[in-house]
Amino acid sequence: MALLLFVIKESEGMNRTAFGTVEGRKAQLYSFSNANGMEMTVCDYGAHLVSVKVPAGDGSRKDMVLGYDDAAGYVTDPCHLGATIGRNGNRIANAAFELNGVKYQLAANENGNNLHSGPDGYEYRFWEVKEVTDQAITLHLDSPDKDQGFPGNFAVDVTYTLTDDNQVAIHYCGTCDADTVANMTNHSYFNLNGHDSGDVLNHTVCLKAGHFSPVADSKSIPTGEHAPVAGTPMDFTKEKTIGQEIGADFEQLKLTGGYDHNFIIDKTEDGQQLFAIVKGDQTGIVMEAYTDLPAFQFYTGNFIDNVKGKEGAVYTNRTGFCLESQYIPNAINEEKEEKPVLKAGETYDTTTTYKFIF
After folding, report:
1. Residue 298, in any domain of the structure
2. For the segment 222-241, what is each residue's pLDDT rounded down to a tens digit?
3. What is the rounded distance in angstroms from the CA atom of residue 78 to the CA atom of residue 32?
4. pLDDT by residue (tens digit) across 162-204?
5. pTM assigned to the model
6. Which of 59, 82, 249, 346 has a 20 to 30 A CA-CA distance from 125?
7. Among 48, 80, 140, 187, the one annotated catalytic
8. Is 203 assigned a catalytic role?
9. Residue 324 falls in the annotated catalytic set
10. Which is catalytic among the residues 116, 195, 203, 324?
11. How many separate domains does the chain show?
């Protein structure tokens, strides 16, 4: 594969600093600010979203995402904090799928299934910085044929943009020379009271999703049913706190230790659509989430276990929540689901945006 040469355009609105060393290579942290006092930082190792700082009512700035003080923390991270997940996010049953009559075997890294593309995910690699502007950074990765078990040479960019209307937009754009699976996501854990403020159980949530994907058992592979949320603790169509029913006597919550399910967006139009509204109970900061994808994983950090994060914070059970835009998990193996297949020569092009209101 030809060597790509990228030229970084240094920008007045961007600050680049050292962010530790991984396997002898120095990682870099890129920070961006907007006109309203927000700041976004991104690392070239794993294309991680490291922080999103938002002005709070007390005159301080609160960091909305869980993370680490340097790149080394992300090497052994058990939770995928802020990670760019690829080539496929979420789970593939039995770590295998068939495409065009060919069976592909992946790494079985969770209960016999493939989770987030296995132990060699894109979050454990250096990405090349392709372009930097005052409020955006584009990072590039070449994923060769049979990388992680997937077919085709996949070349992909991820662009993080901090806008002056307080949006953190994440745009994925890629091509492949063979039909392949492409279902990328960002795995940031948010806490709208601040990353070091404790659990998120009193955050209020509204989800634009009338149906969810029940899981068959504790392995968390969907059954294929699109179950209505009405009348169940999965119903967030009207605002309620995360903690209101998380401990309910409901089989789906027991199987996953809390909310860790795919929700199917009530699509009313093409393109970007609002799918979640969350409010921090202490700060009053609101986050709206938008995507052009059909679904998202709502995860309440049920398995965070004394993770030593940035600025001396220790992250524990339910100290952050995830809204991971995606195709339905295991859709590649489900006949009735919209499949995350990128055709050879076509372009994978999707954007998810998190807007902060303060």
Report:
1. yes
2. 999 999 999 999 999 999 99
3. 27
4. 999 999 999 999 999 999 999 999 999 999 999 999 999 999 9
5. 0.96
6. 346
7. 187
8. no
9. yes
10. 324
11. 1
